[in-house]
Amino acid sequence: MHICLSDGWGGLEMYPGRIIPELKRQGWEPHGLALAGSAVAASLVEAGIEPMTVPTRGRALLQVGRVLAYLKRHDIGVLHCHKSSDLRLGALLATLRPKLKLFFTDHMGVTRAKKDLYHRWAYGRVTRLFAISDATRARNVAAFPLPVERIKRLYLGIDLEPYRPRLSEAEREALRRELGVPAASVAIGLPGRLTDGKGQELWVEALALLRERYPDLAWHGVVIGGLTAAEGSDEAYVAGLRAQVASLSLETRLHFAGFRRDLPRLFEALDIVCVPSRNEAFGLTVIEAMAAGKAVVGADSGAIPELIDATCGCLASPDAPEAWADAMAGLVRDPEQRQRLGQAAQRRAAERFELAAHVRALLEEYSQP
């Protein structure tokens, strides 16, 4: 059973729904526990299972008997939590039913020590903690009250098939027009939640420098991500970002696409993908762009340098808009380099970040005695 009692919507919340179809394909019977009415619950239904639901995180603890009965009825022996707050329930269930194996994926990258009495109890019930990058594993080892051998780096994976090109040239051009990209312009996209830390402000500043330093280049920026709190974004941050775009007179060079469910197709319309997140725990957007065969410019911080290097992408400091402007200018000028980097990135995604391989590694851990 995957437990994700979150009312938000981001990479962490998307994870159970992403892997459940592959768990089924590999012979397991997955179950889910989510908050009633949450996006997580809806994603589990879309993935093909009817999740058990609770009204609130607090009520989940009060309904521990109901959850235990469900586990017994379905002969569930593995629990997998995805938020640190879920471990309160997971550890309690593992305490009351000692044969349960309890797993936890740290999707966020812990930033402070968790070695007080409560955390020693909760993490003491964890069979294996999964870090999603080497960068986060180093922090996990320092922060969590667990022996290092119980903390394993397990990169995330994606289904590569949706990212293979499907659009005809006419369809691709129509999508580019929808995104406001003028004919013959290079489309530079930044997908992700619009919130502090994802680097959109730095990127907008870099676009202004790109226009100033390289006035001969034809390009158009596309911001992809929800514009409201209901879509997972920070509305105050969005308003500030729009004000920044206006103050730099970039309204005609930048399009806000909003939340889109057709991201694989949007990648087809883009030529360059930028991920300037300051301290990304993994970088799901990076591997999605790689799978789509795109030239990626990523921040040289957090886990992103584990995903791309100079052979399959570009790295720039999240504190240096000048470096981003120069990196984007080089790719705008050189379509052959964009193609070469994109093809290399696509090969690396297939070799290292394929969903079926991720799930096989996960199941090996689940199956350990």
From TrEMBL:
SUPFAM superfamilies according to UniProt: UDP-Glycosyltransferase/glycogen phosphorylase
Organism in which the protein naturally occurs: Billgrantia montanilacus
Keyword Membrane: no
Keyword presence, Glycosyltransferase: yes
Biological-process GO terms, alphabetical: carbohydrate derivative metabolic process
Domain Glycosyl transferase family: 172-347
Organism domain of life: Bacteria
GO MF entries: glycosyltransferase activity
Family: Belongs to the glycosyltransferase group 1 family. Glycosyltransferase 4 subfamily.
Protein name, per record: Glycosyltransferase family 1 protein
Keywords linked to the UniProt accession: Glycosyltransferase, Transferase
Location of the Glycosyltransferase subfamily 4-like N-terminal domain: 9-161
UniProt xrefs under PANTHER family: COLANIC ACID BIOSYNTHESIS GLYCOSYLTRANSFERASE WCAL-RELATED, GLYCOSYLTRANSFERASE
